[in-house]
Amino acid sequence: MNYESILFENANGIARITLNRPDRLNSFTVAMHTELRDALAKVRAEPSTRVLLITGAGRGFCAGQDLADRGAVASGDKPVDLGETVETWWAPLVMNLRTLPLPVVCAVNGVAAGAGANVALAADLVLATKSASFIQSFCKLGLIPDTGGTWILPRLLGTARAMGLAMLGDKLSADQAAEWGLIWKSIEDAKFKDEVEALVTQLAQAPTKGLARTKELILGSGPLNIDEALKREAAAMRELGFGADYLEGVAAFKEKRTPTFTGR
Predict the structure, then answer these.
(1) pLDDT at 202 (0 to 100)
(2) Helix or strand or coil: residue 61?
(3) CA dist list (Å): 137 to 67, 133, 171, 181, 201
(4) Residue ranges of domains in the chain
(5) What is the dihedral of CA 15, 21, 24, 28, to 10 degrees?
(6) CB 147 within 8 A of CB 121
(7) Which residue positions in the chain have pLDDT lower than 50?
(8) Are 184 and 156 in contact (CB under 8 A)?
(9) How remote is the C-alpha of 240 from its chain's centroid?
(10) For position 75, what pLDDT does the model report?
(11) Which residues make Cβ contacts (< 8 Å) with residue 158, sequence separation at least 6?
(12) Closest Cα to residue 47, out of 247, 246, 264?
């Protein structure tokens, strides 16, 4: 597939996806969803991929849904089934990112609004420039925070802050988002590119299978009691303990050298 709405490359263990509609603040269209789904399938199918980086082109990360793409704004148009839109595009995108068996890093380089904010928050590690912001703008249109927003926000922030963001639609600065625990880190704009690159390089050299199991267990811990969580941890440790990366890590520790992990 030829990509027109995104940029995609995969080299040296790092897959990079850039939302590439800067004139529309990288807002989503059906074409962008289709291209992103195809790119994520390629990431999932390539065994050499160790980390995925998602960012946006231009001055913003993503403004969410491009309303003009569906004709939902024009007076007299037939109403759009927004539930079908979520079921067809947004929900599968979130689940794709959440179940990808490797770390997903989102580099928020500007405003992340509506579904764009929640796509970013579906990543495992979110970094943002200090000039970036997060806006749950759904309430301005009489809607609810979709794209996983009603699930992600209270788990990261607690009920009070999730309610405030969702019901008021206030702009949340990157610094405040980091202070509240919504994202991993807020970074000076001038240093952002270098720090993002250092992070994904580190993850590309890390024990990927162990990170994938860590991701799986943390994201799946919500409905479990402590006994169930301990059993899942034991099963994961049993599997990983027989893996090549664990053996390499132990050998490197004993030999006082830097380990060379293969992701197995």
Answers:
(1) 98
(2) strand
(3) 13, 12, 9, 20, 33
(4) 6-204, 208-255
(5) -60
(6) no
(7) 71-75
(8) no
(9) 25
(10) 47
(11) none
(12) 264
- Contact yes or no for 10/43 (Cβ under 8 A): yes
State how far the Cα of 54 lies from the Cα of 57, in Å rounded to an integer: 10
Q: Edge-to-edge, what's the strand order for the sheet holding 60-62? A: 60-62, 111-113, 133-135, 171-173
Q: How many CA atoms lie within 13 A of 87 on its CB side?
A: 4
Token digits of residue 35: 């291209």
Give the distance from CA 160 to its chain's centroid. 23
pTM of the model: 0.95
- Residue 133 CA: distances (Å) to CA of 136, 139, 247, 251: 10, 17, 42, 44
CA R_g for the chain: 19
Residue 80 pLDDT: 83
Tell me which fold the domain 208-255 belongs to: Lyase 2-enoyl-coa Hydratase; Chain  A, domain 2 (1.10.12)
Structure-block tokens of residue 69: 């793409």
| 6-204 to CATH, choices 3.30.420.40, 3.40.50.150, 3.90.226.10, 3.10.105.10 | 3.90.226.10
Residue-wise pLDDT for 51-110, tens only, equals: 999 999 999 999 999 988 864 444 456 778 899 999 999 999 999 999 999 999 999 999
Q: In terms of Cα–Cα distance, which of 18, 14, 65 is closest to 4?
A: 18
Q: What is the pLDDT of residue 196?
A: 98
Contact (Cβ atoms closer than 8 angstroms) between residue 11 and residue 50: no
